[in-house]
Design a protein that fits this description.
Blueprint: H1 8-14, H2 23-40, H3 45-57, H4 66-76, H5 86-115, E1 124-125, H6 126-147, H7 154-163, H8 169-177, H9 182-187, H10 196-232, E2 237-238, H11 247-258, H12 272-277, H13 296-299, H14 303-336, H15 343-351, H16 361-368, H17 377-380, E3 385-392, H18 399-408, E4 411-419, H19 425-437, E5 442-448, H20 455-467, E6 474-479, H21 487-498, E7 505-510
Parallel strand pairs: 1-2, 3-4, 3-5, 5-6, 6-7
Helix pairs in contact: 2-5, 2-14, 3-15, 5-8, 5-10, 6-7, 6-14, 8-10, 10-14, 19-20
């Protein structure tokens, strides 16, 4: 028996499920829900139905938000042998984020320090710095955009697979695999296991998030190194290339690159004079080949352009891709929760009007007793469950008598259809097709309790489950007319329906039990 609310001593440990759906909390929820559903498979199905319906009554306000309902279930449920490993996985996730940030900062500082190393013998080649710190970043951004495109053509899939090795995020995944503790194995739930088909988009965007986090801090490291060298040393820049590139052509390229900030920071746009005066050839006498018209201080005027270029083509785009990856990871994590193996069945149990197929003892007798209208007060405070009503074997001839029982169970009829009895097989098929098109949240099949469950009835239920792509609970409602439903009748139906092994098939007594 699981209480619908947690005792005070347990609330502190599980209050994280009630927080906002952030990147980290959703990752924790995914890990916990995966392990909970696997562990819960050992619990008897009837016990799960009763437990989850009891919890579901407290979560009806979130029935239109499956991910939030599942988080509420995680907060309230206790399963024997289940360990909540989500927090350990999230802690490792944060550690990996710090590791990538430090690695990116260090890599950016080291690369910028190497490119801008100046001893006074030879000026710093702007062409090198521009190619590595700006043009290479633009190329990598284009490759990132291509790699994150939805796969529609075979060559896109091959390209994305090949470019995946450029992701620094794979370093984080490799590090996570080196942790044999709970955190490492928990985090691997995202990209390993039976739910990979569901979590693959979230895993892909998580790797992208880690990669963009590394790249963002890489650019911060570059800028930190540039400002440090500018402040504590004198830098002299020039440009040189073996390509047949004239001063005018190079200046035109710089003007194109400087266009995003040319009005905002005019000083960061190299002038034609600076470009012409700072070109050099190493074979000429002296570092500037005797053609230099600018002093060393003036040759240092290239740094505003380099800083603006790194900010415009490195830092800002990486911040945007970081935010995009964060948002998409969060989106796909939330989307994966209700699609995990076992989650649709859990949602069906949470939202079924009643789950009363338990067998044996006083528990069963309580399950099949009638629900009087005055006892339906707590249920009436919840939103009634819209269902399509199927009358089996002419039970819809007594529609007026069925209405009160349906209302007491919290079922709101959306439509009334007929099946079985004197109807042909083709007519039953048409009824199944119509049910698959209905937008109701469940299907309630009303049948006469005194009639035995025939193979025709079981075939109808199986056809309904097989043909409808939308998963929804099916309730079999036993109607006893004026005589009520006996214990023997409910036992016969219960044992027969169990043979279908459908976790979303529920048995109810409509009206009075005797």
């Amino acid at each position: 028996m699981v209480p619908s609310t947690l005792p005070e001593s347990m609330r502190g440990a599980h209050m994280r499920y009630t927080r906002s759906m952030t990147h980290a909390t959703l990752l924790s929820d995914l890990i916990d829900l995966t392990t909970a559903l696997k562990t819960d498979n050992a619990t008897d199905l009837e016990q799960r139905k009763q437990r989850d319906r009891a919890i579901g009554k407290t979560l009806q306000a979130q029935r239109k938000h499956p991910a939030r309902q599942l988080r509420g279930w995680l907060e309230r449920v206790e399963i024997r042998g289940w360990q909540r490993r989500g927090q350990a996985g999230v802690q490792l996730y944060h550690v990996l984020g710090v590791v990538l940030a430090v690695a990116g900062l260090s890599a950016g500082w080291g690369l910028a320090g190497a490119l801008l190393h100046y001893t006074g013998a030879t000026p710093i080649n702007v062409f090198h710095a521009l190619g590595v710190l700006v043009l290479a970043q633009i190329a990598l951004l284009v490759l990132w955009a291509l790699s994150m495109l939805p796969v529609t053509l075979p060559w896109f899939a091959g390209l994305r697979s090949a470019l995946g090795f450029l992701h620094p995020g794979r370093l984080a995944r490799w590090i996570a695999g080196r942790f044999p503790q709970r955190g490492g194995s928990a985090l691997e739930v995202v990209w390993h296991g039976d739910n990979l088909m569901v979590t693959a988009p979230a895993a892909r965007w998580l790797l992208s998030f880690w990669s963009q986090l590394f790249s963002f801090w890489f650019n911060l490291g570059v800028l930190a190194a540039v400002f440090y060298l500018i402040a504590f040393s004198d830098l002299a820049f020039a440009w040189s290339t073996t390509l047949k590139l004239s001063d005018a052509d190079f200046h035109g390229l710089l003007r194109v690159l400087s266009w995003p900030w040319h009005n905002l920071v005019p000083a960061a746009v190299p002038s034609r004079e600076l470009v012409e005066a700072s070109r050099y050839y190493r074979l000429d006498a002296g570092p500037l080949g005797g053609g230099a018209k600018l002093s060393g201080a003036q040759l240092g005027g290239w740094w505003p352009f380099l800083v603006a270029a790194v900010v415009c083509y490195g830092l800002v785009p990486r911040l945007l891709t970081l935010l995009i990856s964060w948002q998409r990871t969060r989106h796909h994590l939330a989307r994966a929760l209700p699609r995990l193996p076992g989650a649709p069945e859990l949602l069906a149990r949470l939202n079924s009007p009643l789950v009363t197929t338990a067998a044996g003892g006083a528990q069963e007798r309580a399950a099949v007793r009638p629900v009087a209208p005055e006892e339906a007060g707590p249920r009436s405070a919840l939103a009634p469950v819209p269902c399509t009503i199927v009358g089996w074997s002419d039970t819809l001839d007594h529609r007026a008598a069925l209405g009160g029982g349906l209302q007491a169970l919290g079922i709101q009829p959306r439509d009334w259809l007929s099946a079985g009895g004197g109807r042909s097989t083709q007519q039953d098929r048409e009824t199944v097709a119509a049910l698959c098109q209905h937008a109701a949240e469940g299907v309630a099949v009303v049948t006469k309790a005194w009639e035995p469950p025939l193979l025709e009835f079981l075939d109808f239920l199986q056809a309904l489950r097989a043909q409808c792509t939308r998963h929804q609970p099916i309730l079999v409602l036993l109607w006893g007319a004026g005589d009520g439903v006996s214990r023997a009748q409910s036992d016969t139906w219960r044992q027969t329906l169990r043979q279908l092994k459908d976790p979303d098939l529920h048995l109810e007594v409509l009206g009075a039990a005797r």
